[in-house]
Design brief:
single chain; 486 residues; mainly alpha; 25 helices; elongated
Length: 486
Amino acid sequence: MNAPIKPGSKQERDALRQNMAATGCTAEDVAVEMRTRYRMRPREAWRHARGWTLQETADRITQASTQHPGEAVAADASLVGKWEKWPGPSARRPSIAVLFAMASAYGCRPCDLLDLDDRQHLPDADLRAFTSAPPKSPPAAVVTAPSAATPTGPDLVRLAADESATWAQWAEASNCGDIAIEQLMAETRSLADDYLTSDPLLLFNLTRRLRDRTFALLEGHQYPRQSADLYMVAGYLCGLLAWMSSDLGQLREADTQGRTAWLCAELAGHDTLRAWVLSTRSKVAFWDGRLREAIAYARRGATCHPTGTVAVLLACQEADAWSRLGAYDEAMDALARAQDARDSVVDSDDIGGLFACQPARQENYAAAVHLRVGEPAQALRAADNALGLLTVQPVRAYGTEAQIHISKAAAHLATGESEGALEALAPVLSLPPDNRLAPVTQRLYELVCDPGQARAVGSGLRGAIEAFCLDSAPRHLALSPGGGVA
């Protein structure tokens, strides 16, 4: 006895398609029936009306798109599935180019692939491009070989004008307006601000989502100046992800984000973004032990002639790397250049927050540099200055504040004042585990491992530091399923 056919199964869909074709129904009729009978999204219904698998559809979309220069689409089965489910969860909005290529493959109009839900989630400019497009044809003019049906005389001239007008309608359309870009920048600023005081993993995920939104817009069509602005936003977001990744102890992934951020900065042609990306790459190289690279990135960033406070941070980072190399004169020269850059700051920072160098952050670097070159008194003075400056800042970055306290503790240990070191470290050791970032844990380990300071660190403090570092955000991430960030 044959098993009953499961409703909505491939077997039932194939039977429906064959029966409708036998009665003279068109592919459009079948697609409509698929939608109503099985509650499918329109793009999925058209695929089943043709009887294609996801991969077969991806191949046909890719092939159809190659017929129209400038609109090539690289599709795969996974993308087709996401395009079909949009605007549902875990889906992906198909771009104009995708929808035209899909329509060409299915032999329908682009607007046939949209329902009311789709239209309500599409920008107005995209809708205009779809509704004005000729049936079964992408918006670009297609040159065909002469034939008996080719118009001649005035009809040929009129056709050429219509083709140009159709292309102009497409070229004029944009999937992203100026207000949308302004909103992306505002959200980027908020993320950069919030990261200084909030859960780093939560902010990492939010930044990643905003980056994906920006990437999706770049895959569509917009004016060149809007593309440049979107690349700028994408560059800042990848720069934030690079900084966050290194704070979570994922230096290889941070380097990858940094390279993508640099590509975006180049495509945007934005000098200040270039400088911030190079600052981020300098930071990653420093914590990875590539000190000469850190210096090179910092110096290169300074040549971009950026606005805002990034020049201050770049000079501080250079001084930091020189001090770890034991180069006293070079470190002091870089600190002096940091102060000169501070005195020359006129414009505000584009982003702010993590991508700003407030005076307390500058003094934090100075304290660490003085420690490494053997000047604990100057280090203690810089640390106290930094803590005083933090009290007048609107936002107190817990990571920067922790490093200032560590510098202060190290200065006390260097002068034999163990009680002062314990007092300075108390706020650090009370940080919640989620806020214990890699630069903080690494600097604490330096206290324990430095031969000049290790003797002054008692066994109780040593144990507290080791327990602190084991119960930290990088450690939790390393032990979590997957063990990394994307």
